[in-house]
Each structure stands twice: as C-alpha cells, then as structure tokens.
Amino acid sequence: MSSLNQLGRLVNGLSLIAKEIVKRSQTIENAKKGDLETLLASSIKNAVVSAADLAGLTKGTVREFSSPRPKESVVYFNSNNDGVAEDNVNSFSNGVAPANPTLDEPIHCEKVVSSNDQTILEEKVGNDGLERESESNLDDKHDVDGGEVAAEAPVDLKRRRPRERKVPATPFSRAFGFAALGAGLAWGTVQESAKRLVYGSPNSNDKQSAISPFLSEQNAERLALALCRMRGAALKIGQMLSIQDESLVPAPILTALDIVRQGADVMPRSQLNQVLDAELGRDWSSKLTSFDYEPMAAASIGQVHQAVTKDGMDVAMKIQYPGVAGSIESDIQNVKLLLDYTNLIPEGLYLDRAMKVAKEELSRECDYNLEASNQKRFCDLLSSREGFYVPLVIDDISSKRVLTTELVYGVPIDKVALLNQGTRNYVGRKLLQLTLMELFVFRFMQTDPNWSNFLYDEATRTINLIDFGAARDYPKRFVDDYLRMVMACANDDREAVIEMSKRLGFLTGKESEVMLEAHVQAGFVVGLPFSKPGGYDFRSTNITQSISNLGATMLRHRLTPPPDEAYSLHRKLSGAFLACIKLGAVVPCRELLLEVYEHYPFGEDEDILSSASAS
C-alpha cells in the first residue's frame, strides 16, 4: 500500500510540473488564444530536432538567441502629441557592465596581420592614457605583385586614447590652460636639467633634443596632452605641425604631435546638450528618432555624432566645441608665445606668416554655414564625374556651429592599402585626378588631406568625400602660372622653374646659388611622377626623404616666405602624394596632367614657356 501511495504522490508531482510548464509556455498560451500556427511550427521544429538527435546528426538543445542589446550611448526619441520629444535612454541594469570598455579601462588588442600592407599591431593602454603600440610596418619592402615581404624591426609608438573632458570655453579658462601648460613645461625643463647634471646628456640622433632640456620626452607628452584637452585653434596648429618633418620640428615634438593628430578629448553629454540647445533650439530632438552620444570622431574644432532623422535617414552631425570660434586669435597668440619661448621653429619657416594664414583658415573652418555652402558647391561640381560622391546637407538640422549631412560609409585611404593592387591603383588614380581637377579645372579645392576625408566604397567603386571646412578658391592668375611651373618641373626645365617661381612669389630673384639649386631640385623631385608617360610606381623612389633633405637647405637660405596660397595648396598636394605612396599605387600621372593642361583656358600673358609644351 505504501508503494502505491508513493507512486500516487509521484504522479501528482509530475502532473503539477506539467501544468506549470503549460502555464508558463508562451507557445501554448498563444495556441489558447487561437495562434495555432505558432504551436504547429514549434511542434514541427522540436520533432525535426529530436529526429536529428536520434539519427546522430545533431546533439544538444534548441537555443533561442535574443536580439543584440542596443548601444548604451544611443538615445531614442518618441514625439508626444504636443510635438515635444521624449527621450528613452538605453541603460544597463542588473549589474551588467557595458559591452565596450570605459575610457579608463585598459585595452588589449590582438595582432592584426595584413596580406598586402603587412602591418602588425599590438596595443596596450597605460595609466597615463597613452596607448603603447608596437608596429612592424613593411611598406618600404613591399612587393607590388604580391611576393614575400621582409619584416622590419618593431617600432614602439604611442597612441593616445581620448577622454571625456569639458572644453575650456571662456577666455579665462583657456588662458589658464595655457598658463598651466607653460608652468608644466618649465617644471619639466628644470627636472630634465637636474637629471642631466646627475646622469649626463642623453644619446640622441636628434641634435636639438640632445642639447635642449626642454625637448624631453615628458615635456613633449605634456604638450600633446594639453593640446588635446584645450582643443580649438591650439590643437589645429599642433596637427598642422605634426605633418612636418624633422628638418622643421624636432623629433620629440613630432612624436608628441603625432599623438595630437590622432584626435582630441570629447565633450561630456551635458556640454554637448548645451551646444545643441543653443544652436538648434531646445526641441532639436523632435527632428530625430535617435542620437548617439558617443562620437564617431573628435577633431580640433568639433566632434561628429551619428543620428537618424524622422524620415529614417542616417546622418552625421558635426558639433563645434563651445568657445572655439571666439578664441582663435588668443589661442594662436598663446601658441606663438610658447613656440617663441622655446625657440623650436627655425626662422626659415616664417612663423608670423604661417600663423596669419592659420588664423584665416581656422576662421573659415569654424563657420559651418560656409562649409555647408562649400559642400553643396562640390556636390554640383562632381555630380557628373564618375567615381566621386558628396553627401547631402540637411539644412533644417544645421546652423553656424552644427552641420548635419547624409552619413556615408567607406574605407579610409590607409585601410585601402590592405586591398588588392588593382583597387589601390584605381583609388590612387582617382585621388590624383581629383586633386588636379580641383586646382586646374574648378580652381576650388578641399585642402585638408586627412585620409579619413576620403572613404572608398568598394561595392560601387566610389570615393565618398567629406569635410569641406578647409575648401577655398584660388585666383586665376595664380593657377595659370602654377600650372606652367608644374609642367616646367615635369620637363626638367630649370630656367622655366625659376621664372615661374619668381612670378608666383616663391623667389625674390636675389637668392644665392645654393638656394636656387635646392629650390629647382625640389621642383624636379615633385615633378618626377609627371616626367614620363606610363604608370608611375609611387614606391619606386623616396620622394618625401628627398624633399626633406632639400627643405633643410631651403630653410637656411630662404629670403621670403611662400605666397599665402601655397600653405593650403602644398598641404593638399603633399597629402595626395603621401596617399599614393601609402597605397603603393601605380598611376599614369603624366597622362592625367596633360589631359588637364591641353584643355586649360590660360588667361592673360598666354606666352606659354617653351618648356611647358606637352611634348
């Protein structure tokens, strides 16, 4: 009898469990409501899985995968009946940490090995916020046809990870920031001097850094981190200087400025909202369905955020740092005082003229209404040109300090270098073609050569162009003579190069023979890709090293600064060359130049020099 009682209890227990399962089953619950299709599909799925398990084809249980969790930084907006947007902020609960590490957490990156560009990276983040990156770059020993590549010794580089810091927006806070930087640099100099008294001067290939205690590695890092915190004109000038070579700027400072070039700190959410409220009105969110508070990029003047408009368009919103536009002149003056005090910049660079040009360029770049106009103008100019696309400007979500454009995707130039040789040749050709068109056809050029401004879409073989804040016009007469000089350089005509250089303002006519020879040879080096028909392999010669060696001589013997137009123009031209070198592209440069030259409408003084003939 006891056995029967125990059996009865077991049956009752199993019955209760079965009832509870039925109660909690969503599929059966749906079936009760008439959703027999779900019940049937679930039953068939379970039967198939059971049969497969019995046959030995599968093993295990059916798992339901939940959809990916939304990004914590994305805010979704729901408009109520009054037209005021309500925001639903994604947040993590139950003690679950976000998927992405916080800004202060260490990052450990696996090695990345590329088949074409052969770059191996390992990253670690220290407590100072600087990522140590070990890189083996095999660009100089690259077989274009895909042969074996010999590795160089790893080089220890530093990369700075952006942090969330409020932008100093008032004149006092910015002045205080520069004062603190100056005091830090002075203290660092005292420390380095004391260190050298005890241990002696360091061994260094860079003579300036070996002589000056100011040029210590610690001071260089102080400078870079301060500029990243300050942002604005100070950071922009640092980024401009970072693309120079060691003949202009000492190696320790170049290393620090390379950290600067990687990006600025980011605004906290509260400060970002203040800018958006002031520029677009407190109801700015009513025009969006979502907004990502984590920036896609943080630069010297502003940062870029992804959003989605009410009509479903993915957009990029560039938001300017507060106080940047009004502090350009004071920032430039403070940077100049620092550079004068440290005596870092050689006289041949003509710092006053360079600062004057930088101030004018920065003033234009801070006007997002002007940038929107530039972008629309480029959109019209390139609308019929195959292989280029300029994203649309969204006017109703834009202002003088906020610019909203269609979001485009693609691979930046440095990543295109990982693709096959045919693709690299194509992209290199299109970039050089664009540069020549901008100067000699449109006489209107986007002068920022940042590789991330050119995004290659491999599916459509199109280069998406972004960031037109640095776009500017060039006078017809200047472009006429510059084209003549380029042809003279391509044809190795010394007399024509000197004559055009005088007309353009690069030479005064009173230069020494040493200066003239260095200037002409520099012109011939730049003209080398255009000197012969057929494809020019940009990895066949070291153009940048040749120019660097000649540049040091020109800095010592130069009698006049270059014309104002040359600062932005040469930045873009050197950027185009560096991009082609990075890509390892083979480009028919002379054919591209002759195509432009033969159709160019020269203005007055059309006595084209004999050297500039198309022969």
What does this structure look like?
By secondary structure, this protein is of the alpha+beta class. Among the domains are: 160-199 and 212-264 and 327-363, no CATH class; 268-320 and 367-407, Phosphorylase Kinase, domain 1 (2-Layer Sandwich); 410-604, no CATH class. Helices cover 47% and strands 13% of the residues. It contains 20 helices and 18 strands. Strands 1, 2, 6, 7, 8, 9 and 11 form a seven-stranded antiparallel beta sheet that branches. Helix 6 (217-230) runs parallel beside helix 8, helix 15 packs antiparallel against helix 16 (494-504) and helix 15 crosses helix 17 (513-527). The protein starts with a helix and ends in a 17-residue tail after the last helix. One of its GO terms (molecular function) is ATP binding. It comes from Theobroma cacao. Pfam families: ABC1. One of its GO terms (biological process) is ubiquinone biosynthetic process.
How many strands, what sense, and barrel or not for the largest sheet?
7 strands, antiparallel
Taking all Cα atoms into account, the compactness measure Rg is 31 Å
| Chain-averaged pLDDT | 76
* DSSP E strands, number: 18
